[in-house]
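FW: tagging you since you asked about this chain on Friday. Here's the raw sequence from the shared folder, copied in full. Didn't touch anything.
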Amino acid sequence: VDPTTRIATISLARPKRLNAIDDVMPREIAKCVALANADDRVHAIILQGLGRAFCAGYDLKEYSEASPVGDASPNQGMPWDPTVDFHFMWANTQDFMSLWHSFKPTICKVHGFAVAGGSDIALCCDLVVMAEDAKIGYPPARVWGCPTTAMWTFRLGPERAKRMLLTGDLISGTEAAQMGLVLRAVPVDQLDATVLEVARRMSSVPRNQLMMQKMVINQSIEASMAATQRLATFFDGVTRHSPEGMWFKARAEAVGFAQAVKESDQD
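HL: got it, structure written out here
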């Protein structure tokens, strides 16, 4: 927390793994958001990733290659119990959504990559500012995943959301801004200053005003959000236990995650 600017900064701190999501990170994000909300010095929150990227998504190298099939794993054997999977993933979804439900505005700063589950985290923030050359997208939409927060539709509308999720393509920060997915895209050497400028502008507004404006705006789209996220979270489990999902898991164990992704991405 910087009391002079009234801004709290939350940093994803697994830089050696490009801040890939593990079992701990979702809970830590929610805890940090709660701490910032409880701190009267804080008016705005910046979320960033340390190292070369914001977040490369779930640590699929760990989950797909190394995580054994079994009751203690997100990867169940057959027949699988969808409620077990839902319980695990729904908790993560709610942790990511703490950024959306935060009483104080959240601004995500994206450099490098915000892909797969990393895009879920970024798009739960109120505002997203990207480096022009950063990449965002949800490649697991091709196999082994469904974005549990469903924020693509709420931010883009159905047609452009389908363009992204029916291909699994990555797009640049520049294209994301042009599409309306994120607020702005700027040269990477201007990213820190741009995000800080936006956060400082908000931090000069009284906390109660920020809270009320955000609650009204969120309420306008939240009526269908919970139901959509429940369906998306359930389907995420289905994608990992479908015939294609089980093939991908087995293939990743046999040849490695990178090669399995390359094979699944072929036309």
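FW: The beta strands are 7-12, 44-49, 106-110, 113-115, 127-131, 135-137, 170-172, 184-186.
HL: agreed, and Residues 225-241 form the longest helix (17 residues).
FW: great, closing this out.
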